[in-house]
Amino acid sequence: MTVFKLKTPISEEEIRELKVNDVLYVTGTMVTARDAAHKRALEYFEEGKTLPIKLEGLAVFHCGPIVKKEDDKWIVVAAGPTTSTRMGQFEDEFIKNFKVRVIIGKGGMGKRTTDAMKEHGAVYGAFTGGAAVLAAKAIKHVRALEWSDLGMPEALWIFEVEEFGPLTVAIDSHGNNLFEEVKKKVEEKRTTVYKKLGV
Amino acid sequence: MEIQDTIEDVAFNLLKQAVIRLPSDVKEALQRAYEEETSEAGKVNLKAILTNIEFAEKLNTPICQDTGTIIFYVKAGAQARGLEKVEAALRRATKRATEEVPLRPNAVDPLTRKNSGDNTGRFIPFVHWEITDGDSIEITALPKGGGSENVSALGMITPGEGIKGLKKFVIDAVIKAGAKPCPPNTLGVGVGGGADIAMKLAKKALLRPLNQPNLNPDLRKLEKELYEAANSTGIGPMGLGGKFTVLGVNVEYAHRHPASYPVGVAYQCWAARRATARINADGAVEYSTHKAR
Questions:
Q1: Can you tell me the distance from the alpha carbon of B126 to that of B255, in angstroms, rounded to the nearest whole number?
Q2: A108 interfacial to chain B (CB closer than 8 Å)
Q3: CA–CA separation, A30 vs B205, rounded Å?
Q4: Predicted pLDDT of residue A66
Q5: Does A73 touch chain B (CB under 8 A)?
Q6: Structural domains of chain A ordered from first start
């Protein structure tokens, strides 16, 4: 296990250094995107429209944050990760078209995303589910709110973050997927566990 | 102070305590898991959990953005005054906590998809009643996370399979749940009664502190076996692999119909939030899971 501290924009070369089980902290620009934002971003790409922010080299966070406004300034109260599998239908195209380097969420993603990460150079960083205060503390500044018509949780929040993490590299750019590895090992253990229980 | 105001204040305090501070038995179990975990990813995630708990306490802010569905368990002394006012007071406390703590509004109409915005709605907050001797009222607040609720399971085992069938059903549920319920979890198992009773007992079992052994030696043995089996699956913290998939297994039971063997499995997130207090007849309040604040 190696600890990496990367600053955005992150290059393909930098991201290819990371292997599953490594720990990553991200500093720089991070953008939240859930189902609706992924869908719209891909539609914009199809239509040749520019996005509110250039995503190349940035980190994308699967998160619907709780944000409050104080003296005209946005403050992030809680920003835990949401379940990433819902974005699985968009993520491969998203990585290919926008060259994002880090996808952050919880629960892992499937083969399509793993393949796209291998081909284009990106990683999946698992953030601890429920650790919403830890996440909010690393978000130093809300740079912009875009696509607010999608609603607070679904909008694009553009954050400046400092050492956002720890992120466990659970999918690397070499085709390894830690969640799938664990699932496979658990399945292999099933009969041993049964036997121990006498069932 | 009028009894309904005391109940409202106590319930508000319980909700606030529950979502911001974990009971000491849960914190100790997570700390022990961190110390004994051998997988690197597991250790990293447990450390993040412990840091998050500390930050939440320091900043007086909820541990997790999902502050759950609000459920209350009330043990009412048959001689206690004001019992007819308890449910309304609990609703007021829930609305107040949603605004002031704050809690995330988590009460959605299943048909219209409209969020009530204040964590109350039809049958929500849900109140489980138990009538006891005496004149005091004990209230427990259980903010129940959604991710862990989604992996609940009910099995109608063939009675011939009996306890073996139960063990297999529980382990299959744990393996199927995998990373989804934010492990390491507290696992509640309810056996017997009927389908609804087994589920009710499973969820109620989540309220027993992790350091409080089952008084029934047979159940104690069963809990230990299920605990060891769940933790030998290797799912680990956040499903990233490791020794700690559960922090504890609590089993409750009821007698069953000869033809039925219901098994309920309820999950609580690593953030196993709960808070309890007793209101005595003279209005004095004793908080048992958290210090009065």
A1: 25
A2: yes
A3: 41
A4: 81
A5: no
A6: 3-197 (3.20.130.10)
Q: Which percentage of chain B shows pLDDT scores above 90?
A: 95
Backbone angles phi, psi at B113, to 5 degrees: 65, 15
Q: A35-47 vs A88-98: helix axis angle to the nearest 10?
A: 40
Whether residues A128 and B180 touch (CB distance < 8 A) is answered with no
Which of B52, B239, B270 minimises the CB distance to A133? B52
CB contact under 8 A, A182 and B235: yes
Asked whether the beta carbons of B142 and B123 are under 8 A apart, the reply is: no
Identify the structural domains of chain B with CATH numbers, from first to last: 3-21+63-145+273-287 (3.30.360), 147-268 (no CATH)
Instruction: Report the complex ipTM.
Output: 0.92
Q: Is A38 a catalytic residue?
A: yes
Q: One-letter amino acid identity for B222? A: L
pLDDT digits (tens, 9 = 90+) for B18-73: 999 999 999 999 999 999 999 999 999 999 999 999 999 999 999 998 999 999 99
Token pair for B135 = 């004149």
State pLDDT tens for residues B242-283.
999 999 999 999 999 999 999 999 999 999 999 999 999 999
**Among B112, B143, B160, CA closest to B271:** B143
